[in-house]
Amino acid sequence: MKYTSTRDNSLSVSSATAISQGISKEGGLFVPESFPQFSLERISSMVSMPYVQRAKEILREYLTDFTEEELNYCVEGAYEASKFSSEKIAPTVNINKNENILELWHGPTCAFKDMALQLLPYLMTVSAKKAASGKEIVILVATSGDTGKAALEGFKNVENTRILVFYPVDGVSKMQKLQMATQEGENVAVCAIEGNFDDAQSAVKAIFTNDEIKSKLAQKNMMFSSANSINWGRLVPQIVYYFSAYCDLAEQGRISVGDEINVVVPTGNFGNILAAYYAKKMGLPIKKLICASNSNNVLTDFLTTGVYNKNRKFYTTTSPSMDILISSNLERLLYHISGNDDSLIGDLMNKLANDGKYAVNDTMLSAIKADFAAGFADEASVKNTIKKYKYLLDPHTAVAVKVYEDYVNNTGDDIPTVIDSTASPYKFPKSVYSALFDGKDFDGDEFETLEELSRVSETEVPAPIKALKNKPVRFKEVCRKDNMSEMVFKLLKL
Ligand SMILES: *Cc1c(COP(=O)(O)O)cnc(C)c1O
C-alpha cells in the first residue's frame, strides 16, 4: 500500500513516510492509492473478534510496511484494557428501535480522539525509525478542545517526541481547558491563542510548510509532524470502529452481515466522517453517511449545494469541538470524488485560501449526494434533544441525534443506524445540566455540577475527569495568533 498527495499525485510514499511527515511538502494531504476490499465473509469472520483483533485486520491492510510484530506492539499497546473504561473499547448501545449509539469516549481523555491518539504515538515512533532516521519529532497541534488533551495524553513522555498544543483561549469548555492546563509529562507544552480554532489551525499549517523554520529545526535534528486529523495515522485507526460497530450490531442480532446501515457523525474537521466513508469504500455495507453540524453549518451547505463558503458568521456553541469553518479533511474527499484530480484540488484549495470559497461541478456534487446526507442542529434544538433522551447525551452527540431525527422525518429511511457519540457528557457538565433543567444552572462549581449530574442521571463520572479537581495548573501562557512561530521556538527552548 502506497500513499500519494491530494495536490501532487506523482508522489508515492510508504505509510511510515506519510505518518512521520504528517502533511505533504506542497501542502497536500496523504491519501491511500487504493482501498483494500473486505468481503462479507471476511467481515463475518470479524464478528467474534475482540476490538484489538478487529483493529489488526484493518490496519494490516494499510500499514503494509509494518512487520506483524510492530503492528502487534502498536495495537496492543494502544488499546490495552486498563486504559479504557469499557472492555469493549468502543461499545455499541441501543437507545431506541434502530438507533444505536457508538460510544467512542471510553479512553483516558473521555473523547473520541483517544481512539486514534492512543495509537498514533506508537505508529509515529515506529514510522520515524523507518522513515525519518531517528530525528526527534515535534508534534504541533491546533485543537478545538479534545484533540489537544488526547494528543498530550498519548504523547506524554514518549521517547524522541515533543508535543506543543495551541487552543483558542475562549473556544473550549472549562473542563477541556483544565484537562490541558494540568497535563503532566516532561515533553509537553500548552499555549492558548487569541483567536479561534481556524486561526490556530491555519497558523500551524503555515509553520509546517515554512522552510526557514523547518531548516532551523533540522539543525537540531528535529522535524515537525502533526497529530491533527490531517495526519494519515489519525484517520486509519478511526476506520476500525466503523467495522467494529457493524460487527457489534451483527453480534447483537440487530442486523445480519450484508445488511445496510446508516452512520451519523457529528462533524467538525471532517476526519471522523471521512473514516466512515473509507469504511464504505472498503466494502462495509453503509448506505448513507449523515454529516451532522452545529450552527457552524458550512458543511451542511456544501454537501447539499456544492458551494463551500466559509465567509459567514462564526458561532461559539456548546459543542466547541465542531466550531470549525475550514474542514481540512474535506480535501481528501474532494480528491477521491474528482477521480484523483490533483490540479483541481490545488485550485480549489487556493480559492479557499484566497476567497474563502469554492464550488464543485455537478458531477462531483451528485457523487457526494450519492453517499452523503447532511443537516445541522441549532443551540435550542441541541438542548431539547439532551432533555428528551433518558440516555445522557453530550452536546456533540445531541447534534448528531437531532440531525438523525430530522433525516428520518424527511426521508422515512429508518434502517439500523449507528450514531457516533464523540464525548462523555461529563466533559461539558454545565451545558448538559442546564439543558436537562430548562436553562437553569446548577448552583455550584464545575465539580459540584459533575456530582449532581451523576446523581440525577444515575451514571458515573469518569475517573480522569474526577481527578482533575486536585491537579495543579502547569500552563497559563497566552499568545497572539501572529506570534505562534516565535512561541514554538520559545516552548522548544531553541
Ligand atoms: C473532534 C470532535 C468532533 C469532530 O470530529 P472531526 O473528526 O473533526 O469531524 C466531534 N465531537 C467531538 C467531541 C470532538 O472532539
Structure, explained:
The chain is of the alpha/beta class. It has 22 helices and 16 strands. It has helices spanning 15-21, 40-46, 51-62, 68-78, 113-117, 120-131, 146-155, 174-181, 197-208, 211-219, 232-251, 271-281, 298-305, 330-337, 342-355, 362-371, 379-388, 395-411, 429-436, 446-457, 463-466, 484-491; strands at residues 3-5, 8-13, 30-32, 92-96, 99-103, 136-142, 161-168, 188-194, 222-226, 261-266, 286-293, 307-309, 357-359, 372-376, 417-421, 478-480. It has a 6-stranded mixed β-sheet with strand order 4-5-15-10-11-14, with helices on both faces. Strands 9-6-7-8-16 form a 5-stranded parallel β-sheet, sandwiched between helices. Helix 1 (15-21) packs across helix 6 and helix 19 crosses helix 20 (446-457). The longest helix has 20 residues, at 232-251. It is globular and about 60 Å long. The two termini are 37 Å apart. The mean pLDDT is 95. Bound molecules: pyridoxal-5'-phosphate. Pyridoxal-5'-phosphate (PLP) binds next to helix 12.
